[in-house]
Amino acid sequence: MFKKIVSQSLQYMGVPKTGTKTNKSGGAAAKTVNLPTVPQLTGQVKKDAQNALLKQGIAYETVGKGSKIVRQYPEAGVKMKPGQRIYLLTEDSANMTIPDFTGVSLRDTLQVLTLMKVGVQVSGEGYVVSQKAQMVNGKRVVSVTLQPAKETVTGVKQEETQDSTTGVAANETGNATKTEADTKTKADTTANTETNAGTPKGGISAVADEKSAAAIKGEDN
User: Fold this and answer.
1) How far apart are CA 113 and CA 147, in angstroms?
2) Which is deepest, 16, 73, 116, 129, by most CB within 10 Å?
3) Angle of the 46-56 helix axis to the 2-12 helix axis, nearest 10
4) pLDDT of residue 156
5) Signed CA dihedral, 120, 121, 123, 129: sign only
6) Are 112 and 96 in contact (CB under 8 A)?
């Protein structure tokens, strides 16, 4: 019973059911996603339609203050997509409250607003991150701003990711150049040390002084 309740709750939140098929050899095959089919809800009493969707674990949103479903999206008979919800319109009026489309795809947003007889202005692509309703020439228009799914989840824009990657590459190149320079400096230091080790203290002047002393001693003899 608990498993059934959890399963319905997850599906209500837009998490589809999954199942694992077993192949002929006994091993686990690829998982399949069991997506529900949209039921026929138009014409039903609002409460009955809502209860039916709850039993199937399908997410929905009711728009309007009417007691019956006059329109629905998606239409009956189509397969739902992962994370998708059903919109139930209970009025045939252009004065219905605009639902919150945050996280909804552009396609679903356009379809619902079209059913509501509301104009749309779109900026960006992907999924809705903000919206604003306003009157334009006596007609309600909703301006929606969209972002790709990755930006919506991570909050990182694609340009920032590219700049970050370029910065890392430049940093690695700089470190490599610095390492080569340090290696060359160490090699020069080692060569100088070996050369100095073969030369007596005092350098060339000390050697000349020794030869002069030997020549004077020879003359005395």
Assistant:
1) 19
2) 116
3) 120
4) 64
5) negative
6) no
Output the CA angle 187-192-196, nearest 5 degrees: 150
95 pLDDT higher than 70? yes
CB 90 within 8 A of CB 49: no
Residue type, 207: V
pLDDT digits (tens, 9 = 90+) for 140-158: 999 999 999 877 666 666 6
Both structure tokens of 182: 């340090």
pLDDT higher than 50, residue 208: no
How far is residue 87's CA from residue 78's CA, in Å, rounded to a whole number? 14
**What pTM value is reported for the model?**
0.56
Instruction: Please identify which residue in the block is written with the tokens 């020879």.
Output: 218
Top mean-pLDDT range of 22-36, 38-52, 155-169:
38-52
Contact (CB, 8 A) for 85 and 50: no
Task: Identify the pLDDT of residue 147.
Answer: 95
* Tokens, residue 151: 């930006």
In sequence order, the 6+-apart residues with CB closer than 8 A to the CB of 124 are 145, 146, 147
- Residue 174: Cβ-neighbour burial (10 angstroms; 0-12, 13-18, 19+): exposed
Task: Tell me the mean pLDDT in the region 51-77.
Answer: 94
- Taking the CA atoms of residue 7, residue 13, residue 16 and residue 20 in that order, the dihedral angle to the nearest 10 degrees is -40
Whole-number Å distance between alpha carbons of 96 and 70: 13
Q: Please check the confidence at residue 217 and state whether its pLDDT lies above 90.
A: no
User: Taking residues 82-111, what's their average pLDDT?
Assistant: 91
